[in-house]
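In practice, a research group might receive sequence data for several interacting partners and want a quick structural hypothesis before committing to experiments. The following worked case mirrors that situation: the sequences arrive first, and a predicted assembly follows.
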Amino acid sequence: MADENSKKLVSVALNHEENENKEDFVDPWNVQSASATGVDYAKLIDRFGSSAIDSELIDRIEKVTGKQAHHFLKRGIFFSHREMHKILDLYEQKKPFYLYTGRGPSSESMHMGHLIPFIFTKWLQETFDVPLVIQMTDDEKYLWKDISIDEVQRVALENVKDIISLGFDIDKTFIFCDFNYIGQCPDFYKLIVQIQKHVTFNQVKGIFGFGESDCIGKISFPAIQAAPSFSTAFPHIFKGKRNIPCLIPCAIDQDPYFRMTRDVAPRINLPKPALLHSVFFPALQGATSKMSASDPNSCILLTDTPNQIKNKVNKYAFSGGQATVEEHREKGGNCDVDVSYQYLKFFLEDGEKLEKIRQDYTSGKLLTGHLKKELITVLQLIVAEIQEKRKTITDELAREFMTPRKLKFDY
Amino acid sequence: MADENSKKLVSVALNHEENENKEDFVDPWNVQSASATGVDYAKLIDRFGSSAIDSELIDRIEKVTGKQAHHFLKRGIFFSHREMHKILDLYEQKKPFYLYTGRGPSSESMHMGHLIPFIFTKWLQETFDVPLVIQMTDDEKYLWKDISIDEVQRVALENVKDIISLGFDIDKTFIFCDFNYIGQCPDFYKLIVQIQKHVTFNQVKGIFGFGESDCIGKISFPAIQAAPSFSTAFPHIFKGKRNIPCLIPCAIDQDPYFRMTRDVAPRINLPKPALLHSVFFPALQGATSKMSASDPNSCILLTDTPNQIKNKVNKYAFSGGQATVEEHREKGGNCDVDVSYQYLKFFLEDGEKLEKIRQDYTSGKLLTGHLKKELITVLQLIVAEIQEKRKTITDELAREFMTPRKLKFDY
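A structural hypothesis for the assembly, expressed as tokens:
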């Protein structure tokens, strides 16, 4: 899974009537939004050919699980899907499926944006009680970045510990780093080669924009991110069963990998994975791009102190407020571009409180300073909780999560 | 390692003064000779940029080892090399190196042509007393042919048993199939990705003629054949030592893989492999192409009965003799195109006898029927011996050869 810039790609604008300069650009390595309010997600659904997560789907999730939908669903943070209804059918029929998500371990410490798919995945796992596999694409990061294999493996282990700190259940979760797992599981390698046989250079060129001067490692990598979508990748969990469907929660920029995967699936007689797509987490500086851990001022890191969090929000969080208090009281703030408000949408669980903040900020009753203060409190609390948990995560525990083994499910 | 046609490539004729139609074509999947006497090997040395194995090198091999050079060397069957003198330097200095060869397991039974690199490798191993690794590229065959993974793995095991029948020493030889070994050895996978990071699509396009409609598995495969050239691929043998050089005996059509490997080596701080190249083994029908196991009438299979051998040689072996006995007595035969004589060059160890046959056939004293009879006797003997040994090779023994383990050498 990629989250940082490494190459410039030519946007394939599917919406030809659109002015080219106004088209958002989204692929696994680059997100460039054309407007200050961020990417136009409705348009992205059109271009990618996925389906919007509508109130009907959210209602059905609540109905079949008997649980409140996660606020990421209700607030449009997970906004798009592919075949989620099929997954709900399976759940109703008490048939198995599993969850797959992942991360490209690029930076020593993860940032708040990196947490989004994992927070949601944890909720899905607890709600549906299914196995979860988490892929750390250390091989991808080695291929795309100027980093040694040893270093990327070290960073991956640190990231795994960050992820575990969110509270995943070791009895139901398998985390793996490609550099290790491919060398541990012949079935996984076989599946990768099967996928590689069914995808041409032309296809990855069209999907990912690869060119002739790209290394052959990059060109064949998409098969490695595709492979965990199929249960044969995990013989220790699924006992070689070929037909256990997969649900992938991920940010929308990862969808190209899984469009490719869904194309290949019927040709290798395996089920297409279903998907749930999230919006991007904005940088502190504004919603026109994703956060990047390589610019520590653009994001809240999981290692930030309460003071660092306070200072970063106060100093960098793009404000939708007016220039002066008087003007703000009069005209009100703009929640659509205000990063503090956007972050609260992600992290403030209390929906009523969030709505009140929205109304008061929009009306001008709530000032930017107070809005930021709300956010600082919320972030400090979440980060402190993760840091507390993180202290208890030993290398040994991380390695246990990464040991191929049977999980608490029978197949 | 590939030995069968699967795609047509455009010959990159390096010798521009040459008439295009007269240029031999040689790559890992196709060998097309422009003349009835077969490929022009001197020209190939020029084009590939390797060095001829001359009498000076052969003398030096005999001098440093104190042993007679193999008749494959004396008769020009192994005719080209890269840096063999460096390997002899190491041997003189009692420094370690190892041997690497391989095979693409494409057909149930191997044919006599497949034996050439293995017969010579066995002699090298016995002469220099060094470890040998043998790669079975079952993944390559799956990618290039219309065959299932299960089937290619089954065929690979049969081929491994054929190879073991030549008498390799289990204490000094590690045989591995990619589909298993890559899933057993994280260090091997890491090395493959390292190589894949340092080779572009443009490079494999230039070297192997890959195109945009080729699958990404083919495009990234060359790294997998390159990887065993480096001792880090075998931590169980070399304990992670990075600097143990490799000598690769192979047919000249495999050289493109190792030119690429030698290009990459300095960029990943590993030693370039040395090479010894053989000529192609001609089809029964003539020296203009390689034998192919997919046409049983073009080759002597290791499973052929004495009668089948006799019939195939009598019926199909292209003759350099004249149309009638009288004409033959008068004008003599042409050893350069006579397949029976060519085969005797490979398999009749007695050099004096071979020379007498050559003289008598050339003068017309020896008739084609008698020449064929000599060959039939030689082939029947060799094949019977291998078949006898083959009966004793159990699946279990083959799996022992294929178990990653320490060999009888200390590093």
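Before designing any experiment, note the following. Residues 185 and 342 of chain B are 42 Å apart (CA to CA). The interface with chain A takes residues 139, 142-143, 149, 179-180, 182-190, 193-194, 196-202, 204-205, 210-217, 219-220, 222-223 of chain B (CB under 8 Å).
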